[in-house]
Amino acid sequence: MSTLLESLSAAENSGALLPSSAENIRKMLSRSASPLTLSVITELVEGGQWDELNNRFFRTLAFGTGGLRGKTIGAVLTKAEEGPGRADGRPEYACIGTNAMNEYNIIRATQGLAIYSREWHKRQNRPGRPSIAISYDTRFFSREFADLSAKVMTDLGCDALLFEGPRSTPELSFAVRYKNATAGINITASHNPPAYNGYKVYFDDGGQVIEPHASAIIDLVNAGEGDSYEALPEAERGQVIKLGREIDEAYMERLEKLIVDPELFHRKPALKTVYTPLHGVGGVIIVPMLHRLGVECYPVPSQMVPDGLFPTVKSPNPEYPEALSLGMTLADIEKADLVQATDPDDDRMGVAARDASGKLVLLTGNQIGSLLVWYRLKRLFEKGILNEGNRDRAVVIKSLVTTDLQKEIALGFGVKCVETLTGFKYIGAKQRAYEEKLPEAIQARYRELSEEETREARLKDSLFFVFGGEESYGYNTGDFVRDKDGNAAVICFAEVAAYAAAEGLTVVTLLDRIFSEYGFYLERGESLTFDGAEGAAKIRKLVDSYAGNPAAEIEGAKVLSVLNYDKQDIYDSEGELIPKEAMIVFEIAGGLKVAVRPSGTEPKIKYYLYASEKSGSGSFSADELSATKLRVAEGLERLWQWLKADAAKRAE
Asked: Looking at the predicted structure, is the pLDDT value of residue 618 above 80?
């Protein structure tokens, strides 16, 4: 040990090892009695892997308002972590380090959440023990982390409502509400690469944890250590309660009620869709739901297999065209109308649909959301559910970086549109606020009411949530889930496709009709990735540069306004102050807009590019729309090239 400590001091003195890394390594070595910890650190030190040690130890993995996310497999895999080798390709042990997803940080997080849940439960004078629902996806270490979380929370006096098998993020949100749990945890890293995992926290309303709970939980997490904790006496501990098909069926019954016109699925020929969960959890609910509705569903066989390596795709992200390629091949074989893909935790959905020529075309998240908004509003009015007398009690919610086309559609139907910061927790917070506007007698039994009863109550005394969406392929169409819902998105978009077919259209030609009426809107999402400790510093430098030295011109066009959501007081359309966030929006002459923000879950800085153009005659002809699409796309390409070059200069 003394030789190891001497090597660490020498590396720190030479500048190879950051002071914060050296300190965190020494603390872990002094506290941990684990032979694995000593073996891993020794192997990395002896190999001179200082960059790897810095990436693993330069900080303690931050527990933010959404929870944790980090690597379970280091860029340099030690022999000690790899172990004897496994058939599934996973290392035997999770990555050792304070800045990694491993047992150390799972214990820290669960200890803080359990203590806060117990205290909050007591303050609310709730009977019995607090309960925390736990789900997990198909990623490496997800089941082990879920079991460890259950053990820690039961040792600390909470019941663990643990799903018997992998389940989706939206079903976890539903389960928190359905079981009246105090909180929820989902072990997932969503669509991140195989080396990552995460710990996503929800509170009693089924939404991602927000203030005032978030800061209090964070303080408790940061006050604890992940090496050990003191369990309560056995009589005061909680128990593990398994969740399974009962929750699945209750959830599916509510999902079915989201369909506005079920008869569309009974038309001949039946709608055909190819579906892939990208080796994740989506098949548990989506395949039986599509069959229940009457849709001919063709799962992609190789991608139905749960596999944390995600071996058939470069990235398990339905935003990327490559992730849908196997589905598109199967769709051409089966002559299917759609290809639908969900990410590993089943909260995002991507789509390929046929154009007028029969070719499969990939839709963006903005386009998918716009079709859902337009269809649901149109049909809710046609069915009389929404009308002149109650339209002011309907609301569409979108993130600030989502296409303005959705706002135009909502306002066109005379419905309110509210914009929030990026992150579905903000949309979930709005849903909670609308529920809290209901009479207390209704609130007391709200979760027991049917979908029709809750809708009637919201239209009478509060606001009816029609749709919530983000450009990053996340959508929600129901109030019984307080996060983006890939299950609901798949069935509701299938309904859009069935409607288009009934009108003699394809999904793509239906979208063109919307463009013709509301104007052509095009968006482009880009990002720059900067890994590790050095990358985090570059991202911070870029953010500070945009804030302190915003451009006066972008790609030769004058910047008309700059909104800094971190420094300015900005209010939403309901008069509520938008929370501070590191995001800057540039309004540019010529109908252009750029938003810049650091990712909250990945080592990236994100750029959102927007352009729109309306027809001078009120609506586009087919030729005019085609020419407009090409012209606007070329303009966004030039804009991105300018931004990329400018970012390189700012990051120097």
From this structure: no
Lowest-confidence pick of 312-316, 442-446, 607-611, 615-619: 615-619
Are 294 and 338 within one domain? yes
Q: Is the pLDDT of residue 149 over 90?
A: yes
- pTM exceeds 0.90, yes or no: yes
Catalytic member of 190, 370, 462, 472? 190
Q: Which residue has the higher pLDDT, 162 or 531?
A: 162
Q: Is 374 helix (H, G, I), strand (E, B) or coil?
A: helix
Omega prior to 212 cis, within 30 of 0: yes
Buried b / exposed e along 22-48 (16+ C-beta atoms within 10 A): bbbbbebbeebebebbbbbbbbbbeee
Location of structure tokens 């002011």: 392
- Report d(CA 639, CA 646) in Å as an integer: 11
pLDDT per residue over 15-42, tens digit each? 999 999 999 999 999 887 789 999 999 9
Indicate the residue among 208, 243, 278 that finishes a domain.
Answer: 243
Statement to judge: residues 487 and 539 lie in one domain: no
Q: CA-to-CA distance for 604 and 592, rounded, in angstroms?
A: 23
Total structural domains in the chain? Answer: 3
Taking the CA of residue 458 as centre, how many other CA atoms within 13 Å lie in the half-sphere pointing to its CB?
27
**pLDDT value for 211:** 86
Residues 277 and 382 in one domain: yes
* Pair (117, 169) in one structural domain: yes
Single out the residue of 125, 194, 130, 136 nearest to residue 162, CA to CA. Answer: 136
Domain range for 156 is 100-243
Three-state DSSP class for residue 393: helix
Let me know if 565 is exposed, middle or buried by CB neighbors in 10 A (0-12, 13-18, 19+). buried
Six-digit token string for 416: 């309110």
pLDDT digits (tens, 9 = 90+) for 486-499: 999 999 999 999 99
Domain of 498, CATH number, reads: 3.40.120.10
d(CA 373, CA 369): 6
Residue 54, pLDDT above cutoff 90: yes
Of 480, 504, 528, the residue at which a domain comes to its end is: 504
Quote the Cα angle for 331-337-343, to 5°.
65
Q: Is 34 part of any domain?
A: no
Give the residue from 228, 161, 210, 188 showing the smallest Cα distance to 68. Answer: 188
Render 404-473 in DSSP notation, one character per residue.
THHHHHHHHTT-EEEEE-SSHHHHHHHHHHHHHTS-HHHHHTGGGS-HHHHHHHHHHHS-EEEEEEETTT
Q: What is the pLDDT of residue 281?
A: 98
The DSSP annotation for 469-497 comes to EETTTEEE--SS-BS--HHHHHHHHHHHH
Mean pLDDT of the chain: 95
pLDDT, tens digit (0-9, with 9 covering 90-100), for 104-116: 999 999 999 999 9
Residue type, 565: Y
**What pLDDT score was predicted for residue 222?**
86
Name the residue type at position 28: M
Q: In what order do the strands lie in the sheet with 349-354?
A: 296-299, 272-276, 338-342, 349-354, 360-362
Residue 527 above 90 pLDDT? Answer: yes
Residue 150 has pLDDT above 90, yes or no: yes
Percent of the chain with pLDDT over 70: 100
Contact 261, 499 (CB under 8 A): yes
Which residue is listed with tokens 């046609």? 382
Tell me: pLDDT of 443 over 90: yes
Together in a domain, 238 and 257: no
- Is 190 designated active site? yes
DSSP state of 282: G
481 within some domain: yes
| Number of separate helices (H) and strands (E) present in the chain | 21, 21
